[in-house]
Amino acid sequence: MKSGSNLEKVIASGKMAVTAELGPPMSADPHEVIKKAGILKGSCDAANITDCQTAVVRISSIAAAVIALREGLEPVMQMTCRDRNRIAMQADLLGAAALGLKNCLCIAGDHQKFSAAGKLKGHPGAKNVYDVDTCQLVGIMKKMRDEGLQQGGDKLEVAPKFFVGASWTPMGDPMDFRPYNLKKKVDAGADFIQTQGIYDMDLFKSQMEKARNLGLHERTAILAGIIVPKSAMMLKYMDSSVAGVTVPKPLIDRMNKAKEAAGDDKKKMRELQEQEGIKITVELIQQALEIPGIKGVHIQAIEWETAMEPIVKAAGLYPRPTFDA
Amino acid sequence: MIVGQQKPFDEIWSMVRDFKKVLVYGCNTCVAICHAGGGKEAEIIASMLRMKAAQEGVDMQVDNAAIERHCEPEFFEPLDEKVSTYDLVLSTACGVGVNFLADRLAGAIPVYPGINTSFYGGVPEAGFFVELCGGCGNCILHLTGGICPIVRCSKSLMNGPCGGTNNGKCEVSDQTDCAWYLIVERMKKLGTLEKLLEVQPPRDWSTGTHGGPRRVSLEHIRAYEEQEEKNAATEGK
User: Fold this and answer.
1) Do B100 and B144 share a structural domain?
2) Is 80 exceeded by the pLDDT of residue A116?
3) What is the Cα–Cα distance from A225 to A238, expressed in whole angstroms?
4) Do B81 and B148 fall into the same domain?
5) Any idea what DSSP says for residue A55?
6) From A124, which residue of chain B is nearest by alpha-carbon distance?
7) How confident is the model at residue A117 (pLDDT cuts 50, 70, 90)?
8) Listed residue (A23, A215, A174, A37) closest to B187, CA to CA
9) Which stretches of B78-196 are assigned E, i.e. beta strand?
């Protein structure tokens, strides 16, 4: 075992892994993290704790991850390259490991100009860092863990043992380069990969075939990302505005149909779309798990954590495996 | 070239309003090409300041001048005496020129900036300027098809595109090309895509603005100049 994390154990056992997502609040109140952790616990093997996603200030990933860990939910802390240089990154990694964290996902991070896509003020005038990029951060973590060395070469008496992850946007353009983009992250040392949300399974299958041809599925655990759709509007927005995400028209049509079936009843409109969203999610999960080389799913029920349990149950992924400590 | 943009006039006025004798001092190299701070622009700013001063009832003399370059001493010499008669120089040179002149005047007269120095860029079409180099001190353009990921990628990524590429555009703006999209396409055309497959290790940024102020010292040129001076002195004897 590289880290001994629950996620690593599930993957090593050959069972399909399930990760979820927990977004920390824009508040110093820990209770929202505690509440979400309580809901997600049992429905996933580990949950990603986002690191100021959409470039908006929230409880830090490490702090929220420790809160989740205390609640019995294994966290995957996230670290963006946007906000820290290599000194702060490594210091935070040592601290996170000392606090008991074992998984870390490396990501570039949304640009500070993004600021929740204009829905919040954010900090578009902030100075970003990008001292290292995702590939390089993955390499730093691997070097710390496997060689007991800091990036600069100084020795670590006790190395932080992280199960190192990276993200992959398989359908982002330039699409023919994306499998190579994945290869670089794997070459750098990524133990697991979580993909951007996938709706177009046929396109994802063809990208996975290219990844398999490069032998990447044998060197890393690829978890297919599924973003639980809540409404037809959300699907349309993701299709038109979210980078690397395309939503096939039949899925949007299904959601529209669910919405129309409610007539003018707003409450019913929401309920029917949510039901359809869960159905679509379960189908996507089942399709993803059939793709050769896929080792699990990363299910993002954004601000809708209660959807996780019915989804994993319907997908035949419940209960989650447990291991003796 | 260095690209700059004139500061808003209200900002310029707030900087100069308390001075009695102001020289607007233009530079006829880069900032003239980008219509920000050449002799012509210095003349326009000076006349706007005179009008504003008259409007506001402020007693102020405003003149203008320009030299070829604000980054080498010999260009300043012919106007040194004239410059010394002012109580403010509003320089419309780039930031290099403002620093250089302020060092030259050594606190005798303040030198204020009339433009904002924006970037090192090119002029793909008249009136349009784009940033193309970050002056990082450690060029890797041979690895990226002549496209600089340090300034043309919003995240200065070194190992390929992030997840924010949308139809070839960057997540910060649909008006901004994704540098890595361009790099991949360029490398395909050049037949050198395999160069992008190698993981680039963390960079040494100390060659850039992160290693403290930088200098380039050409010892052979300095030694030659020193010898020439000595020779001249000997001949003079």
Assistant:
1) no
2) no
3) 14
4) no
5) G
6) B172
7) confident
8) A174
9) 88-91, 111-113, 115-125, 128-133, 169-170, 173-177
Q: Total domain count for chain B? A: 2
Q: What percent of chain A has pLDDT above 90?
A: 97
Q: How many CB atoms lie within 10 A of CB A280?
A: 20
Find the CB nearest B159 among A135, A167, A241.
A135
Name the residue with tokens 């702060």. Answer: A88
Q: Which of residues 185-214 of B touch A (CB under 8 A)?
A: 185, 193, 196-197, 199-203, 205
Residue B221 lies in a domain: no
Model confidence pLDDT, tens digit, residues B170-206: 999 999 999 999 999 999 999 999 999 999 999 999 9
Mutate to test the interface with B, among A144, A147, A177 (most CBs of B within 10 A): A177
Residue A79 has pLDDT above 80, yes or no: yes
Q: Output the CATH code of domain A6-314.
A: 3.20.20.220
Label residue B237 by pLDDT band (50, 70, 90).
low
Domain segments of chain A: what residues? 6-314
Same domain as B77, residue B37:
yes
Q: Is residue B82, in this structure, part of any structural domain at all?
A: yes
Residue at B60 is within a domain: yes
Q: pLDDT tens for residues B115-125? A: 999 999 999 99
Identify the CATH number of the domain in which residue B33 sits.
Answer: 3.40.50
Cα R_g (chain B), whole angstroms: 23
Environment class of residue B70 by beta-carbon count within 10 Å: exposed (0-12), middle (13-18) or buried (19+)? buried
pLDDT number for residue A118: 77
In the three-class reduction of DSSP (H, G, I as helix; E, B as strand; rest coil), residue B82 is classed as: helix
Tens digits of per-residue pLDDT, B64-110? 999 999 999 999 999 999 999 999 999 999 999 999 999 999 999 99
Check CB contact of A180 with chain B, cutoff 8 Å.
yes
Indicate whether B149 belongs to any domain. Answer: yes
Q: A114 pLDDT band (50/70/90 cuts)?
A: confident
Angle formed at CA B77 by CA B71 and CA B79, multiple of 5 degrees: 105
Query: Cα(first)–Cα(last) distance of chain B, in Å?
Result: 44
Range of the domain at B184: 136-210
Structure tokens at A287: 């399709």
* Whole-number Cα distances in Å, B180 to A195, A324, B127, B157: 19, 46, 26, 8
pLDDT at A325 over 80: no
Sheet architecture: strand order including B111-113: B61-67, B21-27, B88-91, B111-113
